[in-house]
């Protein structure tokens, strides 16, 4: 097995929205804001090469939305899906599976693209199976008012219309030890219904793709919950369980949204679970 970080593009989000009720005087120590109160955000995906499978976890925003839409998110940097894949000798047509932690636009927008004459949409990975779960799919295709702006039909429905959509079989509890794709999955409901966090056994390490349960290293303390979460009082016990396990089992936490910290470990302290070490992807994944 080989793992590759896939940088799909950076953007910015409102720091207050990213940290909910935590005061700016506190969160700005770890995530400094610009003059518009915006903080740096990454869309760092993960590619798993395992035998004849090439599995892509999340796909970033994509590039099919309007300039007005992207203007809300202050895109920056030069990363793209195609450039990142090419860096490791791959093309999007090589991808066998696209696993989506959840269907918010910044996680799945790159899964669908314009067709050749821009009259409609098509899947961006024509040879891949697309993976979600039934509960989350139902939640995303019939969105609540709070999340409606994050679940965009053009990002989601073409996966099903293509015939390439598949569902992960959900366990009775919150952890699936081995999924159809060969890795474990932790299911969490606080951010959105049935978000899925892959747990990948790599060499002698457990690499966990944190998605939006842990957006950045600055979000490690349990009460530091994003304003975007639909059920923050549920996020906190889910996060506490996850972070305790991460400390006790020495998980390597792959941060999808932290523009400046790629992989971290955590440890228990008198103040609770806190940051232990920072690593680049090159240090851990090569």
UniProtKB/TrEMBL annotation:
Domain called Metallo-beta-lactamase: residue spans: 42-257
Superkingdom as given in the UniProt entry: Bacteria
SUPFAM superfamilies given in the database record: Metallo-hydrolase/oxidoreductase
Taxon lineage: Bacteria, Pseudomonadati, Bacteroidota, Flavobacteriia, Flavobacteriales
Listed name of the protein: Glyoxylase, beta-lactamase superfamily II
Similarity field: Belongs to the metallo-beta-lactamase superfamily.
One Gene Ontology molecular-function label: metal ion binding
Keywords annotated in UniProt: Hydrolase, Metal-binding, Zinc
């Amino acid at each position: 097995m080989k793992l590759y970080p896939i940088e799909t593009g950076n953007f910015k989000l409102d720091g207050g929205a990213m940290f909910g009720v935590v005061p700016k005087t506190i969160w700005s120590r770890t995530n400094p804001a610009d003059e518009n109160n915006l903080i740096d955000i990454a869309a760092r995906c993960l590619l798993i090469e395992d035998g004849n499978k090439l599995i892509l976890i999340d796909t970033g925003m994509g590039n099919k939305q309007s300039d007005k839409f992207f203007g809300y998110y202050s895109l920056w940097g030069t990363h793209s899906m195609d450039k990142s894949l090419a860096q490791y000798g791959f093309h999007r047509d090589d991808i066998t599976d696209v696993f989506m932690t959840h269907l918010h636009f910044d996680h799945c927008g790159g899964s669908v693209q314009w067709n050749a004459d821009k009259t409609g949409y098509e899947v961006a990975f024509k040879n891949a199976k697309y993976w979600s779960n039934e509960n989350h799919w139902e939640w995303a295709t019939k969105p609540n008012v709070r999340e409606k702006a994050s679940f965009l039909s053009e990002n989601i429905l073409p996966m099903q219309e293509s015939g390439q959509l598949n569902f992960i079989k959900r366990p009775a509890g919150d952890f699936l030890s081995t999924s159809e794709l060969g890795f474990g999955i932790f299911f969490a409901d606080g951010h959105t219904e049935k978000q899925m966090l892959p747990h990948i056994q790599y060499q002698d390490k457990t690499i966990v793709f944190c998605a939006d349960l842990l957006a950045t290293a600055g979000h490690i303390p349990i009460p530091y919950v994003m304003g975007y979460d639909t059920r923050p009082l549920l996020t906190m016990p889910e996060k506490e369980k996850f972070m305790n396990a991460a400390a006790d089992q020495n998980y390597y936490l792959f941060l999808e949204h932290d523009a400046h910290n790629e992989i971290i470990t955590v440890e228990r302290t008198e103040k609770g679970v806190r940051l232990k070490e920072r690593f680049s992807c090159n240090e851990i994944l090569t």
